[in-house]
UniProtKB/TrEMBL annotation:
<keyword id="KW-0175">Coiled coil</keyword>
<dbReference type="InterPro" id="IPR051839">
    <property type="entry name" value="RD_transcriptional_regulator"/>
</dbReference>
<dbReference type="InterPro" id="IPR002514">
    <property type="entry name" value="Transposase_8"/>
</dbReference>
<dbReference type="GO" id="GO:0004803">
    <property type="term" value="F:transposase activity"/>
</dbReference>
<dbReference type="InterPro" id="IPR009057">
    <property type="entry name" value="Homeodomain-like_sf"/>
</dbReference>
<dbReference type="GO" id="GO:0003677">
    <property type="term" value="F:DNA binding"/>
</dbReference>
<feature type="coiled-coil region">
    <location>
        <begin position="63"/>
        <end position="90"/>
    </location>
</feature>
<dbReference type="Pfam" id="PF01527">
    <property type="entry name" value="HTH_Tnp_1"/>
</dbReference>
<dbReference type="GO" id="GO:0006313">
    <property type="term" value="P:DNA transposition"/>
</dbReference>
<protein>
    <submittedName>
        <fullName>Transposase</fullName>
    </submittedName>
</protein>
Length: 99
């Protein structure tokens, strides 16, 4: 049986779904069904929206902005380590050549 293609949602679509969910008196499960969204995804989006609204806190969950910064810093760190390792290997190679 072929797998279902994973749906993707834009930031705007997520924000609109969260707004509808927070304004509604219906449970998240019902709103998800009404909007034809995965219930768990909507729950995660609502939870993250509430974290973002509360703002950064010491030892608390990360806001979306903090998560994006963390991803950027990890990517940058990984690239710098690769460059460093490359330069170490190149230096060792050229040191052998000049001997």
């Amino acid at each position: 049986m072929p797998r279902k293609k994973r749906r993707t949602f834009t930031k705007h679509q997520k924000q609109e779904a969260v707004k509808i969910c927070l304004r509604s008196t219906k449970p998240i499960a019902q709103v998800a069904r009404d909007l034809d969204l995965p219930e768990n995804s909507l729950r995660v989006w609502v939870k993250q929206a509430k974290i973002d609204e509360a703002g950064p806190r010491e030892n608390g969950p990360l806001t979306t902005e903090e998560q994006e910064e963390l991803r950027r810093l990890r990517r940058e760190n990984r690239e710098l380590k690769m460059e460093r390792d490359f330069l170490k290997k190149a230096a060792a190679f050229f040191a052998k050549e000049s001997s």
